[in-house]
Specification:
Elements lengths: L23 H15 L5 H18 L3 H17 L3 H14 L4 H13 L3 H14 L4 H14 L2 H14 L4 H18 L2 H17 L4 H13 L3 H14 L4 H14 L2 H14 L5 H12 L3 H14 L4 H14 L2 H14 L3 H17 L3 H13 L3 H4 L2 H16 L3 H14 L4 H13 L3 H14 L4 H13 L3 H14 L4 H13 L3 H14 L4 H14 L2 H13 L6 H14 L3 H14 L4 H13 L3 H14 L4 H13 L3 H14 L4 H13 L3 H14 L4 H13 L3 H14 L4 H14 L3 H11 L8 H13 L3 H14 L4 H13 L3 H14 L4 H21 L2
């Protein structure tokens, strides 16, 4: 439901300036000045006569501005009475042009826009009214209510308090003040103050009147106390006052599900589909509801009803195809697509249905056959059909399939052909940009994506890809702006909001991330991903009461899919609150019920270890092993406990046995490799790793471990070769990019290699990770820009003060910028940290070079 304790959006923007009524004298001077200009060439006697005539005409033939404004105002009233709001608003705007302070015109304009759902314009005009007439209680009341409903608590408080100072008994203002008190009490965890706020809100609701904010307090309290029946009654009353309040509809739906009123749930979903046609998720939710209960006929009827309403809308027809696939099988779905293609009202829709039919076969695993079918379909189009937008879309779809099959060379000419016919085709530009990003050609990608945005400035997918390009380019601020815009243009889309919130968390702006998720939840009420994201963020931030309410909401709407996430978050909350005994009991219950996976067992063991109870942890795992002696996960966990207790032989035996029994599993390979390496048994560890890679040649983790081993052993070319493969397969992975760029720059000095290393590492220039910044800084230094390198190497050296190579790099950069006195102690520290090693030799050579240069300069 509307959670009154944590809304937050920005208020509508106020106009940049206010129209002010001119003084009569100013108007007169302006008019006379204009007349004087027009009469400049008339003879003196003629000018005087003309001026007298002009004044006479002006005074006798024109009404005052106030009179003209009043005529427009009366016309607006008549039009509103006749139900013509559009023309009435035009007349009211004419009033404002003549008299910007017309109080009743401003009020009626704001009321009309509010009734039409134009909230931003209504807000701006009520705000103007309150500024021009600070004693206007009605304007303050509406502003306070709008701000509270939007979660803009600062403005809600300002207007409610200003209004209450003039009318302390006004129920609308008191309603908002009660909501403010309730929110403050929830945030401060003051149960007494919260109860008092609920009593105030309840009294206002019982007294009647437009007290929406107070009613939401009552609803929130009832839901929190699981008084579902009473909450539903209050929601119904609130919806009579505000029938289009989407969050209340979603809350009503969740409560009906919770009490098991299935017939009412169905009716509520149907009503929401009709009331909120812009919410594309609702029809899918209704279909899922029908399907989950075996109401196949109702689902089909709903889709046919939607299809009949708009013959040109493919969504209900394609949804019916999916429904047939689930209920009657793929043959029935493909037959329906064939029928749709044959009866489509135009060639473009027919082609779209044929492409979808091919893709359905692709979903069934016949990838090569579908690629061939789509290629034949496109090749067989007539000249006229090739010019259809759907034909270019089909070519882009085929290109994506070819790329997915590793046939990039075949996809390239398709994309080139689409762009030759339509240089602004957004899908084709996005594919080209994604390829450029993967190849670290971020400048090229950004140019392509700007072209795509010029074609469709509100395309969220393009903005998201642009954000990725900016991140690869090391421009975090620009990436954040694009992610924020993607959220805006998607209408607070779920995926876009989660992505932007994750970015904000990564850059340390957790409060802003919480606001983004709350806004998204208001736009997509009940979405489990958003509720779970909010709960996890609030656990991190220590807002445990709010997190607990999020988990209650997640539990109320759980259809089974959210179960694992819910259990994980409940465990995280118990751990964050330090309730270790409760955590162990909770996890043990899950394990006993079969609801907990091995992670629950591992978490119990970790908790017991953290409490200094290793024997209890081992005993717990062994008891589970007695019930499931062959369980490989339990055996793996027991081996880890052996290793932690120094029982290395026992751990080694279990890991070796698991490797033999499950040759494709990474876990035993990684664990045994680490165990052997830790004992100095490097040859045996290398053999284990190579055996694992033989079974899993595409394992990124195992190959990464091998690259690290090769680097340690001095086989730099071998390590670079592996990192080249890893970077090509996962170009978004910053660690692989850093390691590749670092090895290239440290071990290959040619200009071409350094340029490529710089292109790969560009994404790291704004990173917080010291090792990443050292890579970028050192590449800049090697390419001759010591001044640009210096701040990056300082950042790295401050973050890793005991890292000899980074200290050496900083010393070289200081010397390169002429700061010889500062460079010496840094180079000496590098030599001391790596006494007798390769870095020490390089640092000593650099120091000797500085001394020689100083001696040459002084002539000594």
């Amino acid at each position: 439901m509307t959670c009154w304790c944590h809304h937050a959006i920005l208020p509508p923007r106020r106009p940049a300036h206010l129209l002010r009524k001119r003084e009569a004298g100013e108007v007169s001077r302006t008019v006379f000045g204009m007349m004087g200009d027009r009469l400049a060439g008339v003879p003196r006697i003629g000018r005087a006569a003309a001026l007298v005539l002009a004044l006479a005409l002006g005074l006798g033939g024109c009404d005052s501005a106030e009179e003209r404004a009043e005529r427009h105002f009366n016309a607006a009233l008549a039009l509103i009475e006749a139900g013509d709001a559009d023309r009435a608003l035009v007349e009211l705007r004419n009033v404002f042009q003549l008299d910007g302070n017309h109080r009743e015109a401003r009020r009626i304009y704001a009321e009309t826009q509010l009734a039409r759902g134009e909230i931003a314009d209504a807000w701006g005009n009520y705000l103007r009214l309150a500024e021009q007439y600070p004693d206007d209680i009605g304007a303050r009341r509406v502003l306070a209510d709008l701000a509270a409903r939007a979660g803009d608590w600062e403005n809600a408080r300002r207007h409610a308090q200003a209004g209450a100072a003039l009318a302390p008994d006004d129920p609308g203002l008191a309603s908002v003040l009660a909501a403010l008190a309730y929110r403050a009490a929830v945030e401060s965890r003051d149960d007494a103050a919260r109860a008092a706020a609920v009593v105030r809100a309840r009294a206002l609701v019982d007294a009647g009147g437009p007290v929406f904010a107070a009613r939401n307090v009552v609803i929130d309290d009832l839901v929190a106390r699981a008084q579902d029946g009473d909450a539903l009654a209050e929601i119904d009353s609130a919806l009579q006052e505000h029938p289009d309040e989407a969050e209340l509809h979603h809350l009503r739906l969740r409560l009906l599900m919770r009490v098991g009123a299935e017939a009412e749930v169905s009716a509520q979903l149907r009503a929401m589909v009709e009331r909120f046609p812009q919410d594309a998720t609702l029809p899918d939710r209704l279909l899922a509801w029908y399907r989950d209960r075996g109401l196949e006929a109702e689902a089909a009827a709903f889709l046919r009803e939607r299809a009949a309403a708009d013959p040109a809308d493919p969504w209900p027809r394609l949804a019916l195809v999916r429904h047939l696939n689930d209920t009657a099988g793929p043959d029935a779905a493909l037959a329906e697509l064939q029928r749709l293609a044959e009866t489509a009202p135009n060639a473009g829709l027919a082609l779209r249905y044929r492409v979808v039919a091919a893709l359905r076969r692709h979903d069934d695993g016949a990838a090569d056959a579908v690629i061939d079918e789509l290629a034949a379909l496109i090749a067989g189009l007539s000249a006229a059909e090739r010019d259809l937008p759907e034909a270019r879309d089909a070519a882009v779809t085929l290109a994506r399939l070819l790329q997915g099959a590793g046939r990039d060379h075949e996809a390239e000419p398709l994309i080139a052909g689409v762009l030759a016919a339509d240089a602004g085709h957004v899908g084709a530009l996005r594919i080209q940009a994604a390829r450029a990003i993967a190849a670290d050609r971020t400048d090229e990608a950004i140019v392509l994506l700007r072209r795509a945005l010029a074609e469709d400035p509100r395309d969220a997918a393009t903005m998201t890809l642009m954000a990725e390009a900016h991140l690869r380019d090391g421009s975090r601020d620009l990436a954040g702006e694009r992610l924020a815009l993607a959220v805006e243009v998607s209408g607070r889309g779920v995926a876009e909001s989660l992505r932007y919130a994750g970015f904000l968390v990564d850059v340390g702006r957790e409060a802003a991330a919480e606001t983004v998720l709350m806004d998204a939840l208001r736009a997509n009420p009940g979405r489990a991903e958003l509720i779970a994201g909010l709960a996890e963020l609030r656990i991190r931030r220590g807002a445990h009461d709010l997190a607990r309410r999020d988990l209650a909401a997640l539990r109320a709407g759980d259809d089974g899919a959210a179960g694992p996430v819910l259990r994980r978050l409940e465990a995280q909350l118990l751990e964050a609150e330090g309730r270790r005994d409760d955590l162990v009991a909770f996890l043990d219950t899950l394990v006993g019920q079969g609801a907990g996976d091995i992670s629950a067992v591992a978490m119990i063991a970790q908790t017991l270890l953290a409490d200094g109870k290793p024997q209890e942890a081992a005993g717990y795992v062994e008891r589970l092993m007695q019930a499931s002696p062959g369980d490989p996960s339990l055996r793996f966990l027991r081996a880890g406990l052996h290793a932690m207790e120094g029982e290395l032989a026992a751990a080694e035996d279990i890991y070796a046995a698991l490797m033999a029994e499950h040759p494709g599993a990474e876990g035993p390979v990684r664990a045994l490799h680490a165990l052997l390496s830790g004992q100095g048994r490097d040859d045996e560890a290398a053999a284990v790793l190579r055996a694992g890679i033989a079974e899993r040649p595409d394992s990124a983790m195992l190959n990464w471990m091998l690259a690290s081993d090769l680097e340690t052993a001095g086989d730099i070319d071998g390590a670079i070769a592996i990192y080249e493969t890893l970077h090509a397969a996962a170009p978004e992975n910053d660690v692989f990019a850093n390691n590749l760029a670092s090895l290239l720059s440290r071990h290959r000095a040619d200009a071409e290699t350094l340029l490529r290393a710089q292109r790969i590492a560009r994404r790291l220039r704004a990173a917080d990770e010291p090792a990443f910044r050292s890579t970028w800084g050192w590449i800049l230094f090697l390419r001759g820009d010591a001044a640009a390198a210096l701040p990056h190497l300082r950042h790295a050296a401050e973050g890793l003060p005991d890292h000899a190579e980074i200290q050496y790099q900083l010393g070289r950069a200081l010397a390169g910028t002429g700061q010889v006195a500062a460079a010496r102690p840094v180079l000496e520290r590098a030599a001391a940290l790596d006494a007798g090693g390769a870095i020490a030799l390089r640092a000593e050579a650099a120091l000797a070079g500085l001394a020689a240069a100083e001696a040459a300069r002084t002539g000594q």
